[in-house]
Design goal:
The chain is of the alpha/beta class. About 40% of the residues lie in helices and about 10% in strands. The chain has one domain: Orthogonal Bundle (Adenine-specific Methyltransferase, domain 2). The structure holds S-adenosylmethionine.
């Protein structure tokens, strides 16, 4: 059965995880994912018992609030998503924008989940002041709440009791890592160094 993936974020490492996993060390005490996004690599590593503890962190507070709520309050989180999803109808073109406005005022994590599921190509976009700016995808309704509930319950079962969710810059959230731990880093391009051998490294 495919691994659960409740946050269908474009750029998630969900499909890459099985290809990346063979490069991980064999014994990991705590697996840190300081640029968590959807937490795909942590979900994979926890399911395959590649570490005993996990630190799932990000500088975007609502995404960590969401991951924490998925693990610690799965029923409540799934119910809130279900209510949001059923609130939309194909004829109410303003619904997505109202949820987006509310998210931009309150930063509510389940509003963010709905926006990720329903926005164009699941491609999350924020402006410089941190407001969610991506538009609605008019061709689909976003993940069905039954499928979402199943994914949330499974992720909770995989991670509950062995994970922490700090919010902040990666340097702060990994500061206590020790030699037996492993940091899995997938930063945004603006923070990532150029890869050796790519056109990024060729001086012009
Ligand atoms: C490329 S995405 C990670 C995607 C993730 N690997 C997945 O599978 O979904 C990068 C993430 O880094 C976060 N981020 C950006 N700058 C950061 C920083 N300085 N410290 C921690 N997280 C940061 C963003 O909020 C975003 O969630």
């Amino acid at each position: 059965m495919a691994l659960p993936h409740p946050i269908p974020y474009q750029g998630s490492n969900r499909k890459l995880a099985p290809a990346i996993a063979p490069y991980l060390p064999e014994e990991i005490s705590t697996f840190y994912e300081p640029f968590a996004g959807s937490g795909a690599m942590t979900i994979y590593a926890a399911h395959h018992r590649l570490a005993s503890r996990f630190v799932v962190a990000d500088s975007l507070a609502p995404i960590i609030d969401l991951l924490r709520a998925i693990v610690e309050e799965p029923e409540k989180t799934a119910a809130r998503y279900r209510a949001l999803w059923h609130g939309q109808t194909t004829r109410d073109g303003g619904y997505f924008n109202r949820v987006r406005d509310r998210y931009n005022k309150t930063g509510h994590h389940v509003d963010l989940l709905y926006l990720i599921c329903r926005c164009v190509k699941n491609a999350v976009r924020f402006n410089r002041s941190g407001s969610f700016t991506q538009s609605v995808d008019k061709r689909r309704l976003g993940m069905h709440p039954d499928k979402m509930q199943g994914a949330i319950l499974r992720v909770s079962a995989i991670l509950r009791g062995r994970v922490e969710f700090p919010i902040g810059d990666w340097l702060e959230t990994t500061a206590d890592a020790m030699a037996a731990d492993f940091l899995y880093m997938d930063p945004p391009p603006i923070l990532a160094p150029p890869l050796a051998g790519t056109s990024d490294t060729i001086s012009k």
